[in-house]
Amino acid sequence: MKFNKDYWSAFYLHEKPPWDMRCVSPPLKAYFDQLPRKDLMILIPGAGNAWEAEYLWQQGFKNVFVVDISPLPLQNFKSRVPDFPDEQLLNIDFFELKSQYDLIVEQVFFCALHPSQRTAYAQKMHELLKPGGKLAGVLYDFPLDPGNPGPPFGGSLEEYLTYFKPLFKIKTFERCYNSHPRRQGRELFMILIKA
Q1: Contact 125, 155 (CB under 8 A)
Q2: Structural Rg of the chain based on CA atoms
Q3: How far apart are CA 174 and CA 180, in angstroms?
Q4: How many C-alpha atoms does 140 have within 13 Å on its Cβ side?
Q5: pLDDT at residue 58, as a whole number
Q6: What local confidence, expressed as pLDDT, does residue 47 receive?
Q7: Within the chain, which residues score under 70 in pLDDT?
Q8: pLDDT of residue 154
Q9: What is the Cα 42 distance to its own chain's centre?
Q10: 95 with 68: CB under 8 angstroms?
Q11: Predicted pLDDT at 73
Q12: From CA 108, how far away is CA 113, in angstroms rounded?
């Protein structure tokens, strides 16, 4: 199965994403609340309904860019946050992005990609970050099931480190203590710094 624009548009049209909590992820909210600068260039790829972007925007972060391959979740987001700039809603394939950012937020995008794309994901994240930039967010922590048609696709800390350790300084990579109740015991929080 090809997880392309048509797949994701049909997915958002006909299904409720199982990972959509309809609110900002608690571990990410806690992380955002301690960020010292509001002028950071922030990217949220594969943002879906973009609850994290909505929260950041409401907190005064004005350089937030939201990316999704399907226009439908971007339209959902815009209907909730009508004052968000259209030019910061990017309806393109993540792998086609060219700009650089201070912070990239990971919130279930990684688990939506086919596992065969994980190395390419890590490389693209490294490319999109400015020197010293950070990739921060949550990854699912449950076994990758080869029989799972996905998404979401699981994984483990040990596996994830094989993609990220060659490219990033690992600041934090640990089990979340403040996950949403539906995700308790199933999430890892990471802060990776571009090496």
Answers
A1: no
A2: 15
A3: 16
A4: 20
A5: 97
A6: 79
A7: 1-23, 145, 148-150, 183-185
A8: 85
A9: 11
A10: no
A11: 85
A12: 9
The pLDDT of residue 193 is: 98
The residues with which 187 forms a beta bridge, in sequence order, are 140
pLDDT of residue 4: 62
Measured CA to CA, the distance from residue 164 to residue 52 in angstroms comes to 23
Q: What is the pLDDT of residue 194?
A: 97
DSSP the chain: ---SHHHHHHHHHH---TT--SS--HHHHHHHHT-S-S---EEETT-TT-HHHHHHHHTT---EEEE-SSHHHHHHHHHH-TTS-GGGEE-S-GGG----EEEEEEESHHHHS-GGGHHHHHHHHHHHEEEEEEEEEEEE-B---TT---SS--B-HHHHHHHHTTTEEEEEEEE-SS--GGGTTSEEEEEEEE-
User: CB neighbours (10 Å) of residue 136?
Assistant: 23
